[in-house]
Amino acid sequence: MTVSRKLVNLLETPVTIDELVEQEVPMLSPRWGAKDEDALIHTLGINLFAAMGRRLGFFSLVEFPVPRAIQWQRKLVRVDSAWFDISTRRAVLLSEFERLSMDTDQEKLTNLDVGAHGCEVTPDILVLCVWSLDGQPVDLSWFDPRKQFPVPNGPHVGRPEKAEIAILHATFGRRKEQLHFMQIRRLA
Question: Directed axis angle between helix 38-55 and helix 3-11, to 10°?
Answer without folding.
Answer: 110
